[in-house]
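Case study 2.
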Amino acid sequence: MSTRTFLVHGLVAGLLAGIAAFVVAYTVGEPQIDKAIALEEAAGAPASDGHDHTHASGEEAGHSHGDEAVVSRTTQSTLGLATGTLALGVVLGGFTGLLAAAGLGRLGGLRPAASTALVALLAALSFSVVPFLKYPATPPAVGSGETIDSRTAVYFGFLAVSVLGVLAAVAVARRAARQWTGVPGVLAGAATYVVVVAVAALAFPKIDELGDFPASILWDFRIASLLTLLAMWAVIGAALTALVDRTWRQHSAVQARKELAASL
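Prediction:
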């Protein structure tokens, strides 16, 4: 099984994952964004002064009064969302496929399918889930525009630490496995990652710019965002593992037939 095989499988899995993420995001995420935009527009609406301040159509993304948005809200929530989730799914799927190829034979005696599933799980935790727990997604109308650069920087900084932490955990687990096989080696690696992430979570600054944004809408938005991430990674992991397992079984069957033919 070549690296190219893993990459192609990863791209296919990522495409399927992008479709799944779009369905989840459109179903449970977009309604929360609409609520947040409505609150932002209501907060920015000037007091009544006898003039007509009719808002732009709800299908428009712009928050100016009567000015047409460059991209309509309908396009953002359909074509734009689909393009984003598909592109992200393909990128994450291809990257996970490459990582699975690199990890093959380096994660103990795991078969290709089990090794791939483990790589996908570690990638999901380190790249998406754990960073989300520290810096969860926020809807429109939350956060100051003046701090967006700093908020983005600390998020990607923490993400980088999380990814490096899981790489360190794998290295520790492999080394520990040489001395203590089985559970102790796995626990050593897991403890390494937990310590690295815990220290980073304490060291990185907190971001609290919620203001008086309704807690219920914020909660629903973050749950929807997390469900979208989980859908993305669940499909990547399941599809990539299934494709790798099928290819490995086909390759094993061909090798077995060759060996049988050679022995006759």
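The mean pLDDT is 83.
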